[in-house]
Amino acid sequence: MTDFITWTASPALYDGFIQIRWYGLFFAIGFIVGYSMMDRMFRHEQLNVKWLDSLFVYVVVAMVIGARLGHCLFYEWDVYSQHPIEILKIWKGGLASHGGAIGILIAIWIYSRRVTHRSMLFTLDRLVVPVALVAAFIRTGNLMNHEIYGHETSLPWGVRFVENLPQWMAGAEPIFTAPSHPTQIYEALCYLLLFGLLLYMYWRRNAEEREGLIFGTFLIGTFLSRFLIEFIKNDQVAFEASMTLNMGQWLSIPFVIAGVWLVVRAMQRPRVPIKYAPAKAKAKR
Q: Which segments of the chain are extended strands (E)?
C-alpha cells in the first residue's frame, strides 16, 4: 500500500482535430440513460411518452443556464457584474449544482403548466430517479478534470491531482497537489447509493403513489451529503474562507428542509393508486 494515489488521467478521451472530454461524455451518457429510464417509467404508468421529448429539452436547457447563472451570482458576482459578457462563456468553466437545481425547478413549473397539466411533484417524483445517476456521472467527470477535490489528508486513499492542468495537457511537466480527499468520489458514491434507494422506492414500493415522497427523499439525500462533504472540500472562491459555513452549505440547507417537509407531508397523506401497465404488456417490451 502506498501513502497516496497519484492521479494522472487525462481530461480528454480524444484530443485530435476535435477534443472529446470525459466530462462531456459522462454528461451525455447520463442524459441518454436517464431518457431511457424515464421512457420505461412512463410506459409502466401508461403515460404519454410524447411528453418526454419536451421534458428532455426543458431539463437540459434549464440545467445548463441555471448552473451557469448560479455560479456567476452565488460565487463570483463581483467579477461577472463588471464583465457580464463573460457569463456567456460557459466553455471557460464555472457551473454550480445549486443553480442547476433551481433552474430545473423553474423549468418543471413551466413544463407542468404547458405540457402535462399536472402538479410539479408528479414530474419531479419521476425525474429525480435518473437525475441521481446523472449527478454521479457528473462528479466522475469532475474527477477526470482534476477539480473539486478536498483538503489535504494523510489517509491512504488521498489523491495527488495535477495542479497545472492546461500546461500539463500542452506538454509541460505535471505539478501535483498534496494528497487530498477525493471528494468527487465521495459525492459520486453518495449519489449512486441514493439512486439505488430511489429505484427501490419506485419499482418495489410504489412510492410515486405518495406525491412528493421520492422527490423529498432525493432532496435530503443529495443536499445533506453535499452539506457534510463540504466540510472537507476546498473553498471554490476566496471569500468562503471567512465563512463559518461555505456558500455550498448555506445553499444546501433550504433544499434539505424542503425535502424533510415533503417526506413528512407525503407520509401523512393517503396513497393515490396508479393504473399501471398490464404485466403482459411490460413483458413484451
A: 5-6, 12-15, 19-21, 159-160
Q: Which residue, 48, 205, 31, is CA-closest to 127?
A: 31
What one-letter code names the amino acid at 155?
Answer: L
CA 222 – CA 252 distance, rounded (Å): 9
Average pLDDT score over residue span 122-142: 95
For 54-63, the pLDDT digits (tens) are 998 999 899 8
**Number of helical H runs and strand E runs in the chain:** 10, 4
Spatial distance between the Cα atoms of 187 and 136, rounded to a whole number of angstroms: 7
Q: Is the distance from CB of 122 to CB of 215 less than 8 angstroms?
A: no
Q: In whole angstroms, how far apart are CA 9 and each of 5, 21, 142?
A: 12, 11, 12
Does the global pTM surpass 0.85? yes
Neighbours of 231 (CB within 10 A): 12
Chain Cα centroid distance, residue 75: 18
